[in-house]
């Protein structure tokens, strides 16, 4: 039967900013997501009201070798600056391919795309390992955004390799000073602003009034980000990703970043599902899987009345 005029394509390949290839995913109820092949970078996730849920800087540079500022950069094979590679590794500024024949991977979604990254000769000079990195980006019914990474060691010489990783998600928030993050309180963290020293979080939910750059360790599989003004809660569910990085550059650092507006720190928060403290080691033939699921639900949150369990259960 021919598709009716109103029927929209669930997966569409088209051109984005600067002519870069991007894939648009559409859910029948109206949610959408956009993924650039440059970096396998999710740059947009909209709910069924067309509201953007991710932050992308108005100054983002959609041009190699700079990674796109905002959305969901993929940090691999190195998170941050600890290691011999460039900050956050190279996966976020490589051109990925569409994986037309991925190994079986069940899904309920009709709107998804499989991307793959393999090392170039130049990459092999920097990081002499052979791998296949498969990323599936899917929109679930109800508009949830799901990212699954499968990284396989394909070294022919029997060598294991070790990596760290993050989904460096930039959430769009109405006003950072009205935002709370639940489920990380009482946990240990490494503070990037204090030589990666280890501390224990003491307070209630996290709130924000200055620069923050912390790596929370052994975090629960669910984290909630409550946007009081928008009456919206983001729920982040993760698997295979024990750590969670929380980052906001605040005003001074923002001014030093060429691809970030001076006041944009007010409207974003990075909460990054990650593997940092205990890197992953894969022997040849072994595969690692890291999964992130994001949903945005209306929250009836009022200051001081939040029961995080209820928020998480209601989603
Ligand atoms: O500017 P980049 O390389 O995208 O990194 C942004 C930030 O990313 C965070 O994940 C790091 O913890 C910060 O230290 C860093 O400043």
Automatic annotation (TrEMBL):
Q: According to the UniProt record, what class of enzyme is this?
A: isomerase
Tell me the Gene3D superfamilies matching this sequence.
2.70.98.10
Identify the catalytic residues. Answer: 168, 272
E.C. no: 5.1.3.15
The reaction(s) catalysed by this protein are: alpha-D-glucose 6-phosphate = beta-D-glucose 6-phosphate
Q: Identify the keywords attached in UniProt to this record, alphabetized.
A: Isomerase
Q: Answer yes or no on keyword Isomerase.
A: yes
Q: Which residues form a coiled coil?
A: none
Q: Where does the chain bind substrate?
A: 69, 87, 92
For this UniProt entry, what's an example GO CC term? cytoplasm
Q: Which Pfam families match?
A: Aldose_epim
Kindly give the CDD domains that the UniProt entry links to this protein: D-hex-6-P-epi_like (cd09020)
Q: Which GO terms describe its biological process?
A: carbohydrate metabolic process
Q: Name one GO molecular function term.
A: carbohydrate binding
Q: Which family does it belong to?
A: Belongs to the glucose-6-phosphate 1-epimerase family.
What's the name of the protein?
A: glucose-6-phosphate 1-epimerase
Give the species.
Populus trichocarpa (Western balsam poplar)
Q: What is the lineage of its organism?
A: Eukaryota, Viridiplantae, Streptophyta, Embryophyta, Tracheophyta
């Amino acid at each position: 039967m021919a598709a009716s005029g109103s029927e929209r394509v669930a997966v569409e390949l088209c051109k984005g900013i600067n002519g870069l290839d991007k894939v648009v995913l559409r859910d029948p109820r109206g949610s959408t997501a956009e993924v650039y092949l440059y970096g396998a970078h999710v740059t947009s996730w909209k709910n069924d009201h067309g509201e953007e849920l991710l932050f992308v800087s108005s100054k983002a540079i959609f041009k190699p070798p700079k990674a796109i500022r905002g959305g969901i950069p993929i940090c691999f094979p190195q998170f941050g600056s600890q290691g011999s590679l460039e900050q956050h590794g190279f996966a976020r500024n490589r051109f990925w391919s569409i994986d037309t024949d991925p190994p079986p991977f069940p899904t309920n979604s009709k709107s998804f795309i499989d991307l793959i990254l393999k090392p170039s000769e130049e990459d092999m000079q920097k990081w002499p390992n052979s791998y296949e990195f498969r990323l599936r980006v899917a929109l679930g019914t109800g508009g949830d955004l799901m990212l699954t990474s499968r990284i396989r060691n394909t070294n022919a010489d029997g060598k294991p390799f070790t990596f760290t990783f993050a989904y460096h998600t930039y959430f769009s928030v109405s006003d950072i000073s009205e935002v709370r993050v639940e489920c990380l309180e009482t946990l240990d963290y490494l503070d990037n602003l204090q030589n990666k020293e280890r501390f224990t979080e003491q307070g209630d939910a996290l709130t924000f009034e200055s620069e923050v750059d912390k790596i929370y360790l052994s975090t629960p599989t669910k984290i909630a980000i409550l946007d009081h003004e928008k009456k919206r809660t983001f729920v982040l569910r993760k698997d295979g990703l024990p750590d969670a990085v929380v980052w906001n550059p605040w005003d001074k650092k923002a001014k030093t970043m060429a691809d970030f507006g001076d006041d944009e720190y007010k409207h974003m928060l990075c909460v990054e599902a990650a593997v940092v403290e205990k890197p992953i080691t894969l022997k040849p033939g072994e595969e690692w899987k890291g999964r992130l699921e994001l949903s945005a639900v209306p929250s009836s949150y009022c200051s001081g009345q939040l029961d995080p369990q209820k928020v998480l259960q209601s989603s």
